[in-house]
TrEMBL record, chain A:
Residues 31-161, 165-229 form the Exoribonuclease phosphorolytic domain. Component of the RNA exosome complex. One of its GO terms (cellular component) is nuclear exosome (RNase complex). The lineage of its organism: Eukaryota, Metazoa, Ecdysozoa, Arthropoda, Hexapoda. This is Putative exosome complex component RRP41. It comes from Timema californicum (California timema). Its main location: cytoplasm. CDD domains: RNase_PH_RRP41.
UniProtKB/TrEMBL annotation, chain B:
This is Ribosomal RNA-processing protein 43. GO terms for biological process: exonucleolytic trimming to generate mature 3'-end of 5.8S rRNA from tricistronic rRNA transcript (SSU-rRNA, 5.8S rRNA, LSU-rRNA); nuclear mRNA surveillance; nuclear polyadenylation-dependent rRNA catabolic process; rRNA catabolic process; TRAMP-dependent tRNA surveillance pathway; U1 snRNA 3'-end processing; U4 snRNA 3'-end processing; U5 snRNA 3'-end processing. InterPro entries: ExoRNase_PH_dom1, ExoRNase_PH_dom2, ExoRNase_PH_dom2_sf, Exosome_comp_Rrp42_subfam, PNPase/RNase_PH_dom_sf, Ribosomal_Su5_D2-typ_SF, Rrp43. The keyword Nucleus applies. GO terms for molecular function: mRNA 3'-UTR AU-rich region binding.
């Protein structure tokens, strides 16, 4: 167990935003952390992706659609989506004794499944199963969001049809009234509110919304707005990565001309 | 377009042939010229890529890729810390870590612990299902633990803080993120590479008051006395021996052999059943393992000393 006692100058003002408008890691209020991602990183899974959001590093692997393992869960009209979220024991500041199976991981696994089910075209694969495995190598806040983003990329890499990208982003309030996007672990534990949104960025449809702490109802629209804008920004980055990946794969296979995309 | 499951051409025949014959029937021409499906010769190795220290939450980390097999090793230090007195006091932050009490065992009061653990999560291969650690994970974990203990590559006395009172525990978690054969080779390489980057903070232990002061800024490297390196071979019937098998080849083979060497010494030979091997073949394997061990260690050394890290 770790107890971080942040000393007086932190406790008093909860200064997530300095006078110059800079956050603890030097970002502006509406700046996302640097996202680096790569599709098709591994050979064994049908689809895989690696995503870094700031210092949070996440791996996603997708297997399927394949035969359902537990016959009793067979659904006659759609595929079963099975998600497992796991954190490496060395991913957090203090060694994590149980990489999976603890309540938080199970909750995140369930939320992940709910978010991805909202976008995977499960009706195309009745009586089968799609597995999504997430492994967090380094956790620095926004683990759930990085997992959703990585899972989206892995699904695309596996060729599983999805209605739209599923992007997730966090938002918070700094200094009581300035919405912050994409909060890091330090900002999470400083006690401010945190809103997690998983949404289809183009249509603006929210699949999952989770909030902790409390703030005044008047602030909700702008925080939600900031989170959705974050999702849209993340979508642009992920889409760019997908297009580059397909371009690279295509040119290696000798496709000619531009690759046509359905928008 | 329906999604494909990742089956390879070789496994898709549906014919119940023995290992080598299966290979021959698919790539007949290739095998008769001693070329494997991935273009390698029978005793050639896959390229190795090593990345050190990329996981900043771990006290030491390494990622090793042998061909497509990728393994991450993260090392966490644990001790009973009461107060951290270091230069961090300037920015007003004092970190109080209360972790499990770690006292040395009564029979060996002046050594610390090194706890290796091998994890084969379901994401690394379709063979592994979610749930408790598979047999292979447990066997690999045990193999690594035995190897570290018997090879004497780490002197556990340096992990002792105060005899009979306090010691360091090194939790070494080795996680496979893509399983494409030769798992033990990658695990050992990743573990040794990560151990070489771990630094122990200096600790002042007052025996009378039993208070410990950890100086995070004064750190020293672990002293590693030798560098074991593993090489895996796969055997097929008709006396075919190949080195560094891929997952496909491991599935189809009739036996595996893992040899661990350190420097000029032979550390471990692990041959869990399988078709028999002649003595000359074994000697050849050991000689080849020595050469490969040297090249792995050179690579790890250059990765550690590289300035970009």
């Amino acid at each position: 167990m770790t107890m971080r006692f942040l000393f007086i100058n932190f406790m008093a003002g909860m200064e997530l935003l300095s006078d110059q408008g800079l956050r603890l890691d030097g970002r502006r209020a509406n700046e996302l952390r640097k996202i680096r991602c790569k599709l098709g990183v591994f050979t064994q899974p049908d689809g895989s992706a690696y995503l870094e959001q700031g210092n949070t590093k996440v791996l996603a692997a997708v297997y399927g659609p394949h035969q359902i393992r537990v016959k009793s869960k067979t659904m006659f009209d759609k595929a079963l989506v099975n998600c497992q979220y796991s954190m490496a024991t060395f991913s957090t500041g203090e060694r994590k004794h149980r990489p999976r199976g603890d309540r938080k991981s199970q909750e995140i696994s369930m939320h992940l499944r709910q978010a991805m089910e909202a976008t995977i075209k499960t009706e195309l694969y009745p009586r089968s199963q799609i597995d999504i495995f997430i492994e967090v190598l380094q956790a620095d806040g926004g683990n759930y969001c990085a997992s959703v983003n990585a899972a989206t990329l892995a699904l695309i890499d596996a060729g599983i049809p999805i209605s739209e990208y599923m992007c997730a982003c966090t938002a918070s309030l700094g200094n009581g009234d300035v919405p912050l996007v994409d909060i890091s672990h330090l900002e999470e534990v400083s006690g401010g509110p945190s809103l997690i949104v998983a949404a289809r960025p183009l249509s603006g449809q929210v699949a999952l919304l989770e909030m902790s702490q409390r703030f005044h109802l008047d602030h909700l629209p702008k925080v939600l707005d900031r989170a959705l804008q974050g999702c849209r920004d993340i979508y642009n980055i992920l889409d760019q990565a997908v297009r580059e990946h397909v371009q690279a794969a295509g040119s290696a296979a000798g496709w000619e001309g531009d690759v046509a995309f359905a928008s | 377009m329906a999604a494909w499951s990742n089956t390879s051409l070789l496994q898709n025949t549906g014919l119940p042939l023995t290992g080598r014959s299966r290979f021959i029937s698919q790539s007949g021409v290739l095998w008769s010229r001693d070329i494997r499906p991935d273009g390698r010769g029978l005793l050639k190795f896959r390229p190795i890529a090593i990345n050190i220290g990329s996981i900043s939450t771990a006290d030491g980390s390494a990622i090793v890729k042998i061909g497509n097999t990728a393994v991450v090793c993260g090392i966490k230090l644990l001790a009973n810390t009461l107060v951290v007195l270091s230069s961090a006091a300037e920015d007003g932050e004092i970190e109080v870590r209360i972790s499990e009490l770690v006292a040395p065992t009564p029979t060996e009061p002046d050594i610390g612990y090194l706890v290796p653990n091998v994890e084969l999560p379901p994401l690394c291969s379709p063979k592994f299902r979610p749930g408790p650690p598979s047999d292979q994970a447990q066997v690999s974990g045990h193999f690594v633990a035995e190897l570290i203990a018997s090879s004497g590559c780490i002197d556990l006395h340096q992990l002792c803080i105060a005899p009979e009172k306090m010691c360091w525990v090194l939790y070494c978690d080795i996680m496979c993120i893509n399983h494409d054969g030769a798992l033990l080779d990658a695990c050992i390489a990743a573990l040794i590479a990560a151990l070489r980057t771990v630094t122990l903070p200096h600790v002042d232990f007052d025996a009378e008051t039993e208070k410990m002061v950890v100086h995070e800024d004064r750190r020293k490297h672990l002293e590693i006395l030798s560098f074991p390196a593993a090489t895996t071979y796969a055997m097929f019937e008709d006396d075919i021996l190949i080195s560094d098998p891929t997952a496909e080849e491991e599935n189809l083979c009739s036996g595996v052999l893992t040899i661990v060497v350190q420097g000029s010494q032979l550390c471990s030979v692990h041959k869990p059943g399988g078709s028999p091997l002649s003595e000359t073949q074994l000697q050849d394997c050991i000689a080849l393992a020595h050469r490969r061990g040297n090249s792995i260690n050179k690579m790890v050394a250059s990765a550690i000393s590289s300035p970009e890290r």
